Structure formats: structure tokens, C-alpha cells
């Protein structure tokens, strides 16, 4: 039996620990491993909330900043029990909840300042827990994004954690653009402050653009035994330099990624989707679930300043309860540059989409929270356009209804390492209209399983986005058999975790099954 540890910022295998697609992956891969008869452990920060009602396992004494920090390891109850699968959180008062998904902080003055504090304590706690055998005798440690990569610094340089060198360390890149860059010295949130007695190999750890800083994403790429992008096409993308906004590639880490690739350490394996044990949504509840979510949010203190907008949205939705539109385009995503850059830079293109939909008695439903400037943009557009319903919050029931009951799922990501949303939409026979990038290129085929746009220049992309929407609407209105064929093809597609984890074992874990 192989023994695995997954280390991440998110884990949707437990309640209230997800902000994005990473949470889905960290939920599903350990389940797949446990079903193969191997042992899997998953550990995330507690964010000062997830340890409540957990089972205390042990104290973890950490040498940080020249003093002893005492962190606590808890085992916590999962959403669903699996044999050989255990979930843990690490608690310390400085591992705090952020405003993004109650996980991440947004520090506009000093990027990654607060998050780096909590993930430094968390990673050191994980290293200590491994050292004292809290997860048993481990074979594989699988880390996710920059939040976990400090483990590689500790096992490489810290004299107390040399025992970690006997394990294989795998590093998955979910979002290359978010790199965890912090000063080496002279800052409370610097690595030199936290580890004053550990020699800092600045040449190997530095960000090549900001040479007085560590780049934790780069640390993961440089020091892991295997590095993984979450789709094959995204692997090819990141080996090339970015030329934004036309192309988003290696984000200044392409040379590190090229080196990993040349060393045979870089692998592109598509994420899977779950096709069993899923929440089964009931049809016909789309507008009811929207109204329910709006009323619930109105009662939250943090939503009070949005009360007028929520009431406005509810009033719009009520009209559709009795007078249903003929076509619904939908999108569910965090409101960020990655997901909606095209709409932020070219709001006139989004207005043109709404005008096109109006002609076929169609509406656009968008659900999400995120960057304040994106929230404000979409709230304003919602006030101005009757056929745009923007639900500025999160609701699992409403999300399920959107995936089930809308006609076309819109995913105009500027870049997309893999994407989960398009798989969930396709699972319900909901064709997707996507930007032909990264994992979207690997999962959606134009006019066969959905619709795809691209272009050599930014202006070409915007123009083609509208043209492809016209094409999709034309098929829907004038060629019902073709629309049904695309729906059926989308629903038949299977991006299974079984296949993905087969490749994990072979390439990432170097385990023969």
C-alpha cells in the first residue's frame, strides 16, 4: 500500500474549504487513490475555523522567528467517507481566514503579505507533522500551487527536516499567474524573518525579475521531483513567454518550466470530472433558487451595502418565473482578470452579446464574486440591461440549477490551465462557448461538442467571440437537429479521474500499478 499526503490551500472534500477549481481536484484525486487501495491524507490550513469540531491529534512545535510556535493538528470529518482517506487541518492563531472564499487575503498594499504569513506557518506545521509521523510513513507528498511549495525549501535547506528527502515530492500548478513573491529579508512576511538561522540560497530561490525576492511558484517548479500542469495544452502554453493580452504563457517562469521539461520533470495531464456520486439537481428550480439565494444574502451583514442591487435583481428574476426566456446563456466563475478580462476591457462587446440575445428572447445569467472593479462593472451592466441577471454571491443549489437548466455556457477565459466549469456544463448536455486556450482547447471542439473562438490580435478575438455567438444562436434557432447533436456529443464526453490518475501514477508518482 502506497501512502500519499496532499498539501493545499483548499479541499472540497471537507465543508467550507473551497474558493476555486483547486478544491475540486484536492477532493477528487485522493478519493480516486483511496478507491485503488492506497492510503491518502489531505491537509489544509484551518483558517481559524475549520478545526472546530475536529479531533485533536497533536501539538506541533515549530521553530519560527527565533521562538517556538505551537500549532495544532486536527482530523476533521469529510463530506463523504472513503476507506483509507483522512482529512486534516492545521490551526494556529496567525493562520487566519481571508475575504476570498474565507481562505485568501487580498493585500492591495503588499501582495501576498498576509497569505505568506499563514502559509509559512502552515507549511512548517506540515513538515513537522511529517517528521513526527502524524501521517504514517509517506511515499508521496503532492503539493498544490505556491501556498504549499515552502515544503520544498524546508526539506532542501532546513536541518530539522532532512528526513523529508526520502519521499517523492510532486508539484501541481493550478494558477501560474499567482506566484507568491515576497522579499528575502527586512519584512515581517519575509523568509529571512521566519527562518533566521537557515541559510537562504538566493540564487536558486529568487524571482529573476525581483532579485531581492523569493518566488514560491518558482521554488515549486525548481525543486520538485515532478511538476504538473492540469492540461496538456496548458503545458505547451507555459513553455512560451506571455505576450498579453493576446497570449498568456509562462508568466516569466517559462525558462524554469523549459528546464523542468528538458529534465523530464514536467507533465501535462488533464484534470478529470466527477460522473458519479454527484449532487443531482432538480429541474425547474432555476429562478426559485435564484430568489432563495438573493433573500439569504440580503440577511448577511456583509451584503447590506448591496441590498439595493439584490432587490433589483430579485425583481428582474420574478418576471422570468412566469414569462420564461427562450434562450439562456450562463457563466459561473470568480470575477477576475483571468475569467473576464475581455468583458472588462471591452464592455461594449458584452453589451453587443446582450443585444444579440434580446433578439432571440434570450438572457445572460452570471453568478460570481471577486475583484471589486469586476463586481462593480457587472452590477452597473445589470442595472442598464434587463436581460442580464448578475447574482453577486455563491450558492451551491443555484450553481447546480445553472449548469442543468441553461442552454449555452460561456467561458471567455483569457487563459485557462484546465477549467472545471466547462466539464460540469458538458456533463449536463450544456454546450460551451469558450476561448480556444489551455484546457478549454483540450475539452471543447468547435461545432462538435461546443463552440470556440480565437484570433491573432485582441481585436480579432473580440470580433470572433461575437461571430461565434452568432453562429451558436443560428444553430439553436434554425438547426435544431444540429443543436441536439452538439448537446448529445457534449453530454457523452468523459474526462474521468480514473484516466487522469492512471497518468498520475505513471508519470507524477512513478508507481507501476
UniProtKB/TrEMBL annotation:
Protein's UniProt name: starch synthase
- Provide the coiled-coil residue spans: none
Q: Which domain of life is it from?
A: Bacteria
Q: Which residues form the Glycosyl transferase family domain?
A: 325-472
- Catalysed reaction(s)? [(1->4)-alpha-D-glucosyl](n) + ADP-alpha-D-glucose = [(1->4)-alpha-D-glucosyl](n+1) + ADP + H(+)
Question: Which residues are in the Starch synthase catalytic domain?
Answer: 4-256
Pfam families hit by this protein:
Glyco_transf_5 (PF08323), Glycos_transf_1 (PF00534)
Q: What class of enzyme is it?
A: transferase
Quote the EC number: 2.4.1.21
GO cellular component: a single term: cytosol
Task: Print the keywords alphabetically.
Answer: Glycosyltransferase, Transferase
- Answer whether the UniProt record assigns the keyword Glycosyltransferase to this protein: yes
Choose any GO biological process term that the UniProt entry carries and state it. Answer: glycogen biosynthetic process
- Show the GO MF annotations: alpha-1,4-glucan glucosyltransferase (ADP-glucose donor) activity
